[in-house]
Design brief:
This protein is mainly alpha-helical and about 170 residues long. The protein has seven helices and two strands. It has a two-stranded antiparallel ribbon with strand order 1-2. Strand 1 and strand 2 form a beta hairpin. It is globular and about 50 Å long.
């Protein structure tokens, strides 16, 4: 939890600079928004997801969009795993922590109670914001696992006609 390798990659994929993946997709008129991050962590496994709000043109070019995503991951592996960038992200996270809005006490207690089994008590409140150990090898290993062979693409669009219907929920 202190390395934040998933958060680091998500930050690089989801950043919105003029040279970012999202900026390029917007220039082509293919996407409106991009979000990346880790979900459903079990302690040993986690789902890394990248969600794109594609325009109809982007939807029509989804194979090229996927190729651009993997080209960006390759670029990150070659140029983007840097200690200075990690320190910059850590500084932003610290500011987020220091200026976080108050949450209702009951919500905070419930959240903290669910986290007790995963984190040391001393880091319980701040663990989501801690970037303590830059580990290039861990980040690179994670990036190398994000391949076309390991991906699951879920493409939803009003234009897509379903081929099958779920038996129990009729969805």
């Amino acid at each position: 939890y202190q390395q934040k390798a998933v958060n680091y990659l998500a930050h690089l994929l989801g950043e919105e600079s003029e040279t970012s993946l999202l900026a390029h997709l917007k220039q082509l008129g293919w996407a409106n928004a991009l979000a990346a991050g880790g979900h459903f962590a079990t302690g040993k496994e986690m789902l890394f997801s990248l969600s794109l709000d594609l325009t109809p043109a982007g939807s029509a070019n989804k194979d090229q969009v996927l190729a651009m995503i993997f080209a960006q991951l390759e670029k990150i592996q070659q140029e983007g795993i840097n200690k200075w960038r990690y320190a910059e992200i850590a500084q932003l996270a610290e500011q987020k922590f220091n200026f976080a809005e108050n949450t209702p006490a009951v919500s905070q207690v419930i959240h903290l109670a669910t986290q007790l089994k995963h984190y040391p008590t001393k880091d319980l409140i701040s663990q989501a914001y801690l970037y303590k150990q830059f580990d290039e090898r861990l980040i690179r290993n994670l990036a190398q696992q994000l391949t076309p062979k390991n991906m699951l693409v879920i493409h939803t669009s009003p234009e897509i006609e379903p081929k099958e219907q779920e038996k129990w929920l009729a969805a």
